[in-house]
Amino acid sequence: MTIDTWINKTATGEDFAIDLLDVFGDIVLRLCLKLAHTKDGKISPSDCKIICNSYDARQQKWGASEATPAPKCLTVEPLPHPIPVLSFERKADCWEISVREHAGKEDLTRICTFKHRPTMGGAAAGISERSDGTTVEAHVCPPVAIRVSDNCSGGKIETITHEDVSRETWMASFTENKLMKLKLEFWSHDTKDGLGMLDGEEQDKKGAMDHLGDAAGKAMAFVGGIWTSKAASSGEADAASATSATLAIEDTAGAEAASP
Q: Reduced to 3 states, what is the DSSP secondary structure of residue 61?
């Protein structure tokens, strides 16, 4: 974050202040610059301070302030406009506050660290009470907003999200759906069997039953053909017998007629 300029001082006597607020309105971190001047109005770098603190909105109470010497880039005369970039990096147990002393360079110089402080607002996020029901435990909440003091102008904020590439985050978030089964199929014009395989085992069972049905149909057709051929053969034999009998009768009749 950077600020273009500021005028006068804040109501509490700092040159400017930057607040990081959580969703409950608590100030999880306030960073202030407090410049010191000599009697003739010049900046006294050795007496300039960076002050950090926190504010509990539910209790309406400030914590204990922590001061550290201000970096040289914020105590030079004339003061740079905008001021050097201030970096706030949230670690597991603290805030790491740094400054980019030289414009155009990515190197950061650490100013100080500020240990996370629990707030009563954090306890309102569904945290249970103690066993006796009288004291609510305080917890740390992440910030959701950044605010600069009213005497500042030209504030610019840039947010960066860091991801631990050593952890397979997607694997931790992945839940296998055992009801869904996918198969690799080659799509073609064959609509009888090819597309039916896409539905999984149910289609496999259906296809197997279809094949059994086809085999049964062919077997019945084969048996029917045998009975048909036998019937045809039997019919031909009967016809031949009838023809032979007719010829025999005719021969007998002819013989009788020829006798004197």
A: strand
Quote the CA–CA distance of 96 and 103 in Å, as a whole number: 20
The DSSP 8-state label assigned to residue 70 in this structure reads P
C-alpha 250/C-alpha 260 separation (Å) is 18
Tell if the pTM clears 0.70, that is, is over it.
no
Q: What is the mean pLDDT of each run of 10 residues along the chain (260 residues)?
A: 89 92 91 93 93 91 94 90 90 92 83 87 52 58 89 85 63 65 56 51 53 62 54 51 50 45
Question: Are residues 110 and 199 located together in one domain of the fold?
Answer: no
State whether 46 and 122 are in the same domain.
yes
Q: Does 190 fall in a domain?
A: no
Domain count, the chain: 2
> In 3D, which of 74, 68, 71 has the Cα closest to residue 15?
74
